[in-house]
Amino acid sequence: MALSGLDIYKHLPKTNCKECGFPTCLAFAMQLAAKKVDLSKCPRITEAGKAALDSASRPPIKLVSIGKDDQKLEVGNETVMFRHEETFYHPTGLGFLIEDTLTSDEVSQKVSSINKLKFERVGQEIKVDLIALKCASSNKETFVELVKRVSSQTDLGLVLMSDNPEVMKEGLDIVKDRRPLIYAADKDNFEKMAELAKERSLPLAVKAQTLDELAVLVEKITARGVEDLVLDCEDKDLPKKIQELTQVRKLALKKTFRPLGYPTIAITASTCPYQEVTEAASYVAKYASIVIMKGVEPWQVLPILTLRQNIFTDPQKPLQVEAKVYEVGQVSDKSPVLVTTNFSLSYYSVESEVESSRVGAYIIASFAEGLSVLTAWAAEKFTAETIAKTLNECGIKDKVSHKEVIIPGYVAVLSAPLEEESGWKVKVGPKEAAGIPSYLRSLKNS
Q1: Does domain 64-311 have CATH number 3.20.20.20?
Q2: Over the stretch 254-281, which tens digit does the pLDDT of each residue have?
Q3: Residue 132: alpha-carbon gap to chain centroid
């Protein structure tokens, strides 16, 4: 039975040293009980206390790290099935497969393409995480050459893929300091693979055909002292794979089934580039911790990174920009002034369209608790009063020689009360951001 916060507190040092990052031992105990922190965060726990609490306090899905420093990827340690219940904490790692059957030029070209897969969206940089190197040739020397070449051309985290422990050992000798993921231990090689993982303190992927076989294999490997595991249910069609990924998550969270309480990995099988995007996106949504795919074209990758960003954004804390005046393009005292909310997607949609219009303008991001325009208006966070207050306090009056402000078309109803409240002349702009360029150009030409 799970221990309560008070049960856990009895075994803690009760020094309130704050070294765990929490103000008191009781606060730390409550987080342990909620499975939101690991017992290792307490530096003063006694061996007796650790023995009593280690199993009870362990998160239902273990946190596993791959790579080091700025390129470290952390997966696992999730606490809910659905993000509206709380939130998701560790975004799915996205990686790309490179096989050692490619030529040197093909490898270098693919690595270069992968390194460029970085995008900016709503003020955040979204990028890929891993490169998976597969020994498809069954030749040790060829695989070693691939590992040498790729590791010298990228800082991204690495996954080494071979069922042969001897081949794996040679590859690890090259990149062991970069904390790669070893892929993979199975029923035939798990003893030697576990030995490699333990000797080098590296994470190990474990694969099997069924969940029952996977659970048995995990117990055998953890008995050998290897705890940083990533689970793979091996090749299956998409519906079956999603079903098993969901079952693993549910068993770990709802039943606290320790043999499956680890992050998961899914490798796309689709040969059609369009279907592969759909497959990878499905794994991001349900519930792979790592997704490995073959396609590296920006049009394939950006939708998946966008989906990941949306899913792993805390629904209770919308992405926001600072509430202030922004200058876009070459502005003057006669430049138009647009107002929107400080919801990131709203602001950056407006900014992008203003930039494309090539008309310099000021954009005021009015504080609305990170809500979109219509949502903020319905919640009375984007009203004539709040906009008027922003106009008076943001400093825009010192930047322009006119008193005209453009509001979104969807809140045209605010125009009269805003004019009365602020003393500014209000113009109603387009309902959709896409209409801003033509609107601004028409103002400039009028």
Answers
A1: yes
A2: 888 989 999 999 999 999 999 999 999 9
A3: 19
